[in-house]
Specification:
366 residues; alpha+beta; Gyrase A, domain 2; Alpha-Beta Plaits; Elongation Factor Tu (Ef-tu), domain 3; 3 domains; six-stranded mixed beta sheet; 34% strand; globular
């Protein structure tokens, strides 16, 4: 079925439904995906994310090399902190969206989507030429276990030596978890508080079992890719291959804030993105709140009811367990992107009314 993570045996023990995802055999669900979703919103979920790509960039000019390669300013990230960024093509299209961790003055860890990790590693290596920096694809040297949800800090505090309350959002520190040296990060992709444990592959089972044992009494459950998708959709977080593609720029995705112009060495795609910024996006990513029970799905047409014309396309859609309504994200003309705009989605031949709403659909209580 594809590559297997170090936790595949655990997933089989738990009765997970395994599917091929980006060339990896991954758990899509263990039982009810809705129950897993609700557990993450109300308690905690335990995820295997070992399919993600990890690229190490080290050297005296590692920060400059990443400034040149990415749209953001990696050199401005504080040691022990992280930042969301993107790798763009010369024409401004998105090759991948990434999280960049600065581990030391001259050491960074770039986390890429599984389907793009090989290309990201190759592009970073090519763009680092001429800088005193070394790029190493370390994907197979890392496993990744995530604990997400409002009780995740309680779980992690029980199994690590870290001062969990002091670890800021989008930060990472070395720690001991379940007796192993790890990198403990406080980031996430669910809209909830959450932690990622980057560990060596031979430590993954110990980390997983420790988190499951500590979290079980608190309501933690193992959670698969299916609920991860509905969680990130509710939180308005883009998914590569859906909201983000080689045909999409950060500005269309309403993520222009991550692009930093005027860096000393520039960056690949800067001229094209400056033109897109100045011209203004012709289409924008919006949230859609659909009426009834039929849920919009990716690739379905968005229709302007006043003209009957197709004006856009759904990128992601699903019933929302939290809202109790079907929700979707879609690209529509900028002229139809204002919240309150009435549109329709062609759901298998039926026109489903939908209203444009501001993203995210869900924001956790602070």
């Amino acid at each position: 079925m594809g590559q297997e993570t170090p936790l595949v045996g655990v997933h089989r023990e738990l009765g997970a439904k395994l599917v091929d995802f980006a060339g990896w055999s991954m758990p899509v669900r263990y039982g009810s995906e809705t129950a897993e979703h609700v557990a993450v919103r109300t308690a905690a979920g335990l995820f295997d994310l070992s399919h993600m790509g990890e690229v190490e960039v080290r050297g005296p000019e590692a920060g400059r090399a990443l400034d040149r390669a990415l749209v953001g300013r990696a050199s401005a990230i504080g040691v022990g902190r992280a930042r969301y960024s993107m790798l763009c093509a010369p024409d401004g299209g998105i090759i991948d969206d990434l999280v960049v961790y600065r581990l030391a003055d001259d050491s960074y860890l770039v986390v890429a989507n599984a389907a793009n990790s090989d290309e990201v590693a190759a592009e970073l290596a090519a763009r680092a030429e001429g800088f005193d920096a070394v790029v190493h694809d370390a994907s197979h040297q890392w496993a990744l276990v995530a604990v997400q949800g409002p009780r995740s800090a309680e779980v992690v505090a029980q199994i690590s030596d870290a001062d969990v309350p002091s670890l800021k959002y989008y930060a990472a520190d070395p720690a001991r978890v379940a007796g192993h040296d790890v990198l403990l990060a406080r980031t996430g992709y669910t809209g909830e508080d959450g932690f990622e444990v980057f560990c060596r592959p031979d430590a993954a089972v110990d980390v997983w079992r420790a988190a499951a044992a500590a979290g079980g009494p608190l309501g933690l459950v193992p959670a698969g890719l299916s609920c991860r998708d509905t969680l990130r959709l509710e939180a308005g977080m883009p998914l590569y291959g859906h909201e983000l593609t080689r045909e999409t720029s950060p500005f269309e995705a309403s993520l222009g804030r991550v692009v930093v112009f005027g860096k000393p060495d520039g960056f690949v795609g800067e001229d094209a993105l400056a033109q897109r910024r100045d011209a203004g996006p012709a289409r924008l990513l919006v949230g859609l709140l659909a009426e009834g029970k039929r849920s919009p799905r990716a690739t379905q047409a968005v229709v302007d009811p006043s003209s009957g014309e197709t004006v856009g396309e759904v990128t992601s859609g699903s019933p929302s367990p939290t809202l109790g309504r079907p929700i979707a994200m879609a690209y529509v003309p900028a002229t139809l992107s204002e919240p309150g705009t009435r549109l329709e989605v062609d759901v298998r031949g039926s026109r489903v009314p939908a209203e444009v709403v501001a993203l995210p659909f869900y924001t956790r209580a602070s």
